[in-house]
Amino acid sequence: MAGMISDRHAITPEILLRAYAAGMFPMAESADDPEVFWVQPKIRGIIPLDGFHVSRSLAKTMRRKPFDVRFNTAFGRVMELCAEATGERPTTWINPLIQHLYKELHRMGYTHSVEAWQGDELVGGLYGVSLGSAFFGESMFSRRTDASKICLVHLVERLKARGFTLLDTQFTTDHLKSFGAIDIPRRDYEKLLEMAMRSDDLEFDDPATAGGR
């Protein structure tokens, strides 16, 4: 693809934030590929926050509280587990350059993780970018049944509570559609993005409970 970049100094965290504000995001062909390329889909996936749906079975599971859900206590580890190949997902697009950039953004306060823990074991999670009143979901992983789904529910609850207006999933899957994800044309997405970028950066963290990196 055109625009391949392998030098970590060619993309700075500031450039990455400007790309998100313009509707673009980086990907790699695989976790082992040193290069990244910019993506700007013609059809974009979003989850309308007022149309988010939780199934009865998942709601029942959540009432049992099978996991301790935390925010931003192990961002780097969540990225690493999202990048790992599994039997169900033999390849990923999260290479070392992407990990480096997003960990830098985390130190700057722009990327966040939602984590499912069982005791001292991290068993599920997701991460994404917060900018303006938008949250750009990047990836999720699950090592226990429903772990990443429960993290998504907690993410949406927090976004609603903080006044976010856009939850970007980049693409849609059957898994995400079960929560209410939809595909919209780029032009419609850009209108939502423009409105979200008019906002000051909304607070994602609870300052009293923000953890380590």
Structural summary, described in words:
The chain is an alpha+beta fold. It has a single domain (13-197), classed as Leucyl/phenylalanyl-tRNA-protein transferase, C-terminal domain (Aminopeptidase, 3-Layer(aba) Sandwich), CATH 3.40.630.70. 33% of the residues lie in helices and 24% in strands. The chain has helices at 13-21, 56-63, 75-83, 96-108, 147-162, 174-177, 186-197, and strands spanning 25-27, 37-39, 43-46, 68-71, 111-118, 121-131, 134-142, 166-170, 182-185. It has a 7-stranded mixed beta sheet, sandwiched between helices. β7 (134-142), α5 (147-162) and β8 form a beta-alpha-beta unit. Residues 209-213 have low confidence and may be disordered.
Q: Short summary of the structure?
A:
33% of the residues lie in helices and 24% in strands. With 213 residues, the protein is an alpha+beta fold.
Order of strands across the main sheet:
4-5-6-7-8-3-9
Helix content: 25-40%
User: What CATH architecture would you give?
Assistant: 3-Layer(aba) Sandwich
Largest sheet at a glance? 7 strands, mixed
Number of domains: 1
